[in-house]
Design a protein that fits this description.
The protein is of the alpha/beta class. The chain folds into 3 domains: about 50 residues; about 140 residues; about 140 residues, Rossmann fold (3-Layer(aba) Sandwich), CATH 3.40.50. About 40% of the residues lie in helices and about 10% in strands. It has 16 helices and 11 strands. Strands 1, 2, 3, 4, 5, 6 and 7 form a 7-stranded mixed β-sheet that branches. The chain has a 4-stranded parallel β-sheet with strand order 10-9-8-11. Helix 3 links the parallel strand 1 and strand 2. The longest helix has 18 residues. It starts with a helix and ends in an 11-residue tail after the last helix. The structure holds 2-acetamido-2-deoxy-beta-D-glucopyranose (2 copies). The site of one 2-acetamido-2-deoxy-beta-D-glucopyranose (NAG) has 5 residues, from helix 8. One of its GO terms (molecular function) is glycosyltransferase activity. Belongs to the glycosyltransferase GT106 family. InterPro entries: FucosylTrfase_pln, GDP-Fuc_O-FucTrfase.
């Protein structure tokens, strides 16, 4: 390996770091922790199907991808040409891990009400930070996938521009009862809603199936409709490609993604206990020790979701020299756009998709990011999601070992 990207970028990093630092400290990540995901209990994953071609993968913490699960929902019947009953608008907020859930809720509600959905915009954490859907996601694919299931328009129709929608607060994953009781009456009388999803306690466990049509709509929205736009997909591709090649000789092109960001770990809420004594966060040292315990040797390539290096992460690089962050991996011509202040949403999008594509995933924070990355991984057969609270030697997340994740109600 001739060139160390860390050295090339050292100067750039020093200057930009101070600029970024002030910005990051201000940022409020509290909502990140609203999640309560239930304690993993001591059940071992029964057995992992092994594909014959990848013998070395069977050793240690590297498991082959499970056989891809089959989609066990059928596409909701197309309603064809319909008379729309009214309009629903909403915004995507708080990063891509939330976007997935917000999209699923809006689609389910629009399907139930026979409403027309206005393509959402994307709001950043800071007031006034606004992007178009297309700035992050593939709008054509989104509209194509949901065509006939719900009616979608790219923009608010002119006759609605001067109207004021009724704002409805919706708990994440609303039940059919909730929609019928609390949302439908307002919709019928006003015909134009603006949804504001909130997360009282995030529950990604599957629940009793009641309405196959709405469940299928949720599966389609959650796992089939949202894709990054081409530009961001390309940068994710560049990053994973570099992770697989930087250290190919001793890592066989595999890497572990760890969701660990120092600005999150510094939050007070990290010291609190989750339900049943479960911890919310693990620090850099604990994660490094966990990786060792799980069997990753010192040559393992590791991706941290950190943007700029922080000295508290040195403990990981001492044990795992091939540890990289975004600053090491984003192509030089894209750094301006993806690393400048105010681009936290884009950075989280990169993290979210790199973490869904790695050979193994280890969360240091047990929030919705963990839950929705796990869901995407389950849907695509990449079930190596390892957590310190699960039993050795596999340390497999109970989302996978107990199939408790709602992704298993979409993929069987
Ligand atoms: C990033 O990926 C794109 C598409 O695969 C490729 O054309 C481009 O050369 C890559 N850029 C770098 C710097 O590797
Ligand atoms: C790491 O890789 C080097 C070079 O390929 C090898 O000599 C060494 O034994 C490896 N160390 C471990 C812990 O696997």
């Amino acid at each position: 390996m001739a060139v160390d990207p860390r050295q090339i970028l050292a100067a750039f990093l020093t200057i930009s770091m101070f600029a970024m630092l002030g910005n990051m400290i201000k940022r409020d990540h509290f909502d990140y922790f609203l999640t309560t995901i239930q304690v993993q209990s001591a059940v071992r994953f029964e057995e992992i199907k092994i594909s014959a071609t990848s013998a070395p993968l069977n050793k240690g913490p590297w498991k082959p991808e499970n056989q891809q699960l089959k989609q066990c929902w059928t596409r909701p019947l197309s309603k064809g040409r319909w008379q729309s009953n009214g309009l629903i608008s909403f915004s995507l907020t708080n990063g891509p891990d939330r976007h997935v859930s917000q999209i699923a809720d809006a689609v389910v509600i629009a399907r139930y009400l026979g409403a027309t959905l206005v393509l959402p915009d994307i709001r950043g954490r800071e007031p006034g930070q606004k992007r178009n859907f297309q700035d992050m996601y593939d709008a054509e694919k989104f509209m194509r996938t949901l065509d006939g299931v719900i009616n979608i328009v790219k923009e608010l129709p002119p006759e609605a521009v001067s109207r004021t929608p009724a704002v409805v607060r919706v708990p994440n994953r609303p039940t059919e009862d909730f929609i019928a009781k609390n949302i439908e009456p307002i919709f019928r009388s006003i015909g134009y809603l603006r949804l504001a999803t909130y997360f009282p306690s995030i529950n990604l466990k599957s629940r009793e199936k009641k309405n196959a049509d709405l469940d299928s709509s949720a599966c389609l929205a959650m796992f089939g409709s949202l894709e990054l736009n081409l530009e961001i997909q390309e940068v994710v591709g560049n990053m994973t490609e570099r992770l697989r090649t930087l250290n190919r000789k001793s890592s066989d092109g595999r890497f572990v993604a760890v969701d660990l960001r120092t600005d999150v770990l510094e939050k007070k809420v990290c010291n609190q206990k989750g339900i049943e004594g479960r911890r919310f966060c693990y620090n850099a040292r604990e994660i490094a020790e966990f990786l060792k315990k799980a069997g990753f040797d010192g040559n393992t390539t590791i991706y941290l979701t950190q943007t700029w290096w922080h000295e508290s992460l040195n403990v990981i690089r001492e044990m795992y020299p091939y540890t990289y962050i975004k600053d090491d991996l984003i192509p030089a011509n894209k750094k301006g756009e993806f690393l400048k202040p105010g681009s936290a949403e884009l950075q989280r999008a990169l993290d979210f998709y790199v973490c869904t594509q790695s050979d193994a995933f280890v969360p240091a924070v047990f929030g919705l990011f963990y839950g929705n990355v796990a869901g995407k991984r389950i849907a695509s057969g990449r079930t190596q999601v390892l957590v310190p609270t699960s039993p050795p030697p596999d340390f497999l997340s109970s989302f996978v070992s107990k199939k408790s994740h709602l992704a298993y109600s979409c993929y069987c």
